[in-house]
Amino acid sequence: MAAAVLVIMVMTIALPQDISRPWPNWVLPVLEGLLLVMLIMADPGRISKRSTFLKWGTLSLVALLVLDTLLSTVLLVDQLINAGPVTQSAGRLLAVGAVVWLGNVIAFSLAYWSLDGGGSVNRALNPDRSRDFAFPQELSPEVGSDSWMPKYVDYLYLGYTNATAFSPTDAMPLTPPAKSAMTVQSLISLVVLGLVIARAVNIFN
What we know:
Elements: H1 2-14, H2 27-42, H3 52-81, H4 90-115, H5 120-125, E1 133-134, H6 136-139, H7 152-165, E2 172-173, H8 176-204
Antiparallel strand pairs: 1-2
């Protein structure tokens, strides 16, 4: 998770100023750095206790990343509709679209990781509690061991496949929050990929 947050911090700083947010550029990297610290504290590799502050703090910052993904998508669509500066170069447009799309994948993978079963701490301390996603290893015991538990990479793959296939592939959403989150993510991905690629093709032509 730490590596994913570092990547999204770099992307936030690297995003061209044509996609300007209504707050200073340093705000999001600082908040993302705070999220990084809280993730490490919440899941240091050996989970032994719950912390309500870390749980809700992590959820709040992950929600902020998801909202920023939504905002970046809206701002990019506005640039496409109004023929903003970023749309004048196919290469630049594809680069910005890739940054927004990858941010979508990482932000929602962290959201899934924080949502499923109440978060990593609850999953580790209470593995029998109800879950929001069903992975193949859990549905078919012969595929995975009895002690198998999803790690962050499993949620990253879930975020990636949902952003490319616009639907679940291996892990199935079981609860309304999980289904709602996957719907929003696939819609964002569909808008970004569809509009950006269409505009880039027109520029090339």
